[in-house]
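Hi F.,

I've been meaning to write this up properly since the lab meeting, where we talked about keeping a consistent format for the predictions we share between groups. The idea is simple: the sequence comes first, exactly as it goes in, then the structure tokens exactly as they come out, then a line or two of notes. No screenshots and no reformatting. I'm using this chain as the first example so we have something concrete to point to.
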Amino acid sequence: MNSLAIFFGMIGGPQVIIIVVVVLLLFGGRKIPELMRGLGSGIKEFKNAAKEETEDKIEDKK
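Output, unedited:
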């Protein structure tokens, strides 16, 4: 956990700008909203699956 905090501590404003520029160059401005929608729906599916798994474990204990 500590190494993760150190890693994210090294990312600052200029690094974020460079990452955004690289993403824009790789995917173009028109593809980014589509990619974000896909990422959002993937995260939503993951959360739903994790919630269902937790509910199943609770029901199994009863």
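Notes:
Residues 2-61 form one domain.
The radius of gyration is 18 Å.

If this format works for you, I'll send the rest the same way.

G.
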